[in-house]
Amino acid sequence: MALYGSIDSGFIPAFAARVQFSPDDPAYQQTRKTAVCDAQGNFNFTDLPAGKYFLIAAVMWTIPGQEYMPQGGALLKSVALANGKSERVILTH
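User: That's the sequence. What structure does it adopt?
Assistant: Structure tokens below.
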């Protein structure tokens, strides 16, 4: 069973147990990229070689008075990137 519901896309609620792989595969540490979104919620990754990528975004917030009950969760989507191409991807649940 896939962690996010499928191997191509999915969602894990904020209250679900966090999954950790220990130790991380060294290839993961060498190839992972991180970014912070702009004011419109867009992320930008540059100079990526062609290949298959997994985009994961944590979208979490709290409700006043319920600070210990985070809302939202983590979204995942698989993306195939062709050589020299750019892709616009929307993560939804």
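The CA atoms of residues 3 and 73 lie 13 Å apart.
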